[in-house]
Each structure stands twice: as C-alpha cells, then as structure tokens.
Amino acid sequence: MKNPRIVIRCMITENKDLPLTMKPLSYITIFIFFILNSEFLILNSNAQIPTPAPKQSETILLLNGIAHLGNGNVIENSAIGFENGKLILVVDATTIRLDKDKYKKIIEIPGKHVYPGFISPNSTLGLMEIGAVRATRDMNEVGQMNPNARSIIAYNTESKITSTVRSNGVLLAQITPRGGFISGTSSIVELDAWNWEDAVYKMDDGIHLNWPRMFYSTGWWGEPGSMKKNENRDKQIQKIKLFFDDAKAYSEIENQQEKDLRFEAMRGLFDGSKSLFIHTNFVKDITSAINFERESGVKKTILVGGYDSWMVADMLKENDVAVILRRVHELPERPEDDIDLPFKTPYLLHKAGVLFCLNNAGDMEQMNTRNLPFYAGTAAAHGLTKEEALMSITSNAAKILGIDDRVGTLELGKDATLIVSTGDALDVLTNNIEHAFIRGRQIDLDNHQKQLYDKYKKKYSTSQ
Questions:
Q1: HEC sequence for 200-268
Q2: Which among 73, 146, 187, 376 is most buried, taking Cβ atoms within 10 Å?
Q3: Last residue of a domain, one of 381, 407, 433
Q4: 362's torsion region: left (phi>0), alpha (psi -120 to 50) or beta?
Q5: Which residues lie across from 120 on neighbouring strands?
Q6: In this predicted structure, what is the pLDDT of residue 336?
Q7: Looking at the 3D structure of the chain, how many domains does it have?
Q8: Is 152:204 a contact under the CB 8 Å cutoff?
Q9: CA-CA distances (angstroms) from residue 66 to 29, 69, 91, 421, 432?
Q10: Residue 193: DSSP 8-state
C-alpha cells in the first residue's frame, strides 16, 4: 500500500488542470478513498510482514522426533537431515550410528511431530486481502473464456494473511483464478518469498473450467430460496465444446502466423503439460463433465469440488480422474443427506480407491486456509486413519498437482519442506507449529495475530 500522503498528492496533481466547477470532485474522490481504505490502512499499521528467509547455508539435523512421512509410514524416533534445501537423511535414529559432526545445526525434538509441509490446492491466497475492498480482490477477469489470465502475476507475496496460514503448517498453495466458464491458469507457489517470481514453485500448472450447473439455487445463504433449472445450460455447454474444439485444432499447428493468446494458453491441455481442473459438484454435472473430458482430447483432468463424487466413484476411477474435494467443514447440501456426509466423504472416496485431496474453497477461503490441517483431522475422525488423512494434504495433493517428485513426503532427495509441531498438527487443540522449513530455509512463524495476542495478553495480565 502506498503512503496515503503520496496518493493524495498524486490525486490533486493529476486533477490540477480540471475546470473550477469540477475541482470539488477530486476532493470528494479523496474522501471516498479514505473511507474505503481505512480498514486496510489500520490493519497495515499494526505489524510488519516477516522477512523471507535466506537460502539454507548450514546442514541441519532434526533428532528424535516422531516423523510422519506422508506416505502412511511413521518413524517413532527419527533422524532427519537436510543440506542445500534437500533431504539427505530420513531414518530411524535407533538403528544407525549418526555422525553428528556432519551437521552444523542439531535441533533436538523428542516427542514432537515432523510432517511434510501441507499443500493447499485451489486457493485465492494472495489474490484477495479484504473482501469488502474491491481494490484488494484480484482473482476474477472480465469475460467468460480467459485461459490466458494467469493468476501468478497478480499474486501478492506481501499479503498479511499468508503468515497466519503458514504458522499452521501450510507451506505451498495452488493460486487459482475465479469467475467465468474458463477462469484462467493457476500456478503453485511457496508461501515465503520476496515477489511472485521468487514464489513460483510450478508455473502455469493448469486451466480451470467451471462446468455449467443443471440447477442453481436462488436467494443467498442467509435467506436461501428454491432451486431452479438452468435453461441456458445446453447452450453454455455447446459454447464450451466449440471453444475446446477450436483450441485443439489450433494446437495441432505448431507455428501459427497469427497468435491467439487464449488458444496458446490451452496448448498444454492437449500435450499433457497442463491439467484441466473442472469445478463442479453434483452427480449429473459430474457425469456430463467427464463425458465431455473423454471427447475433448485433454490428457489429464481433475475434478474440483465433487460434493457427489462418492456417488460416481467407479466412473472417476475408470477414467483416472482425481478429486480436489470441497471444504469438509460444511453442512449437507440437501435435507435428505446424512448430517455428517461432508465429514465422511473423504473416507468414501478412499474406500472406493479414488485419489483425492482436500481444499478450502468457500466463504473467507483465503483466511480459513490455515484450517486445512483440521479438515484432515475431521476426516480422520470419520473413517480415515490419521496417516491416511495426512496424505490428503501432503502426498495426495502433491500427486494431483504434479509436484510429487519434489515434495509431499519425507524422502531422500526431495525438498526439505517440512514442519515440526509440539502436538498433533491435525488436532486443533494440540497443533503448535514450532519450526517450519521451505527447501531448507527456516521461515519466520510470527504474524500480526500472534503480535496482537501478545500485546493484549500483557495489557490484561493478572499481574497488573
């Protein structure tokens, strides 16, 4: 955010040549500017954003912790070493003789838990700061077909929300656009960086398609209305099909004389370098989306949302379609659904053999991303084991996003992107992230919420 004095000076300077009758308008603009941005200015005056961590410069050893490897296995008394951002040692400390002199820094963590860094797919983190302030919302593009709208260039590494998210163990996120039929192109970032160029972990990983719904609800969450049929659905689907047909035909010509930016962005869907993320929830919409995927020529498709995905699990498995499952901390969509259906859907998919991971899309999603580990904890309380639930925010997420060769599990040669918690990180009562590393860089876990807590704890302590 610019200094408000500079902003005012610019406003007045830019309007100095206006006719006298219009000059009062510039001062009205200044007044409105302060009203709309007062919340933003106040929030930014409270605390500084932690400085990104420097590159790992010394070998580090985490000793005697309980290592949850992210692949279903646990080492009760572990030794985990990393150098130059890579894991060089992941073993049971009781079975080998350690050469401690090899490590410049040894962190004793007896009884504490080590996990791979959690991964948040389908997130608007860094694309929206304050929902009530339009200038801080940058996840939608004008128009219906925007595959060339790249979310990464709008990603804000200075977001104050990010530091609150990573303090709960979320270290990677898929930054995803919203709106239209084709929202745009997502990218995967590390949540500790100076700018978006530094943050990129995987550039332009996929295109996001919002499949037309057969039925839509009227009203809003406070006063929900009845369901109505989407009379334009067939036309909308036909429009999408024609766009994909044109994009596929365009992709078959390597050197186009006239470049079409939208179709250029779609090339990766047909050569396998990008994934198609289809956002839809209900049975008839899911089946029609998969039938479309069969005919489209797209190499890799992932379902996002998937409220009814458990009903068509066989179809998903047959077509090798993974699921980024919608937020589990929700009420059922229909009165006849089991009250705990959102909680147990992860287990139903796992039981059916469908690859899935969890995400946090929904109201206040960028802030609530920090609750991602607790969604996994809820899934563990409704059918999954703790290690299976952990996989839904680590190794499964990495596989679905195509980054499992570098992250998602604690294995030799992979990135040292991991966390240490004093208690169970999936339990809201015991989660307490003490250390976090992104490619070996130990990141600052401070944030403005912790600072405010400390501030008012001192003010209202019993000692005064």
A1: EEEEEEEEEEECCCCEEEEECCCCEEEEEECCCHHHHHHHHHHHHHHHHHHHCCCCCCCCCHHHHHHHH
A2: 376
A3: 407
A4: left
A5: 173
A6: 94
A7: 2
A8: yes
A9: 58, 9, 11, 10, 15
A10: -
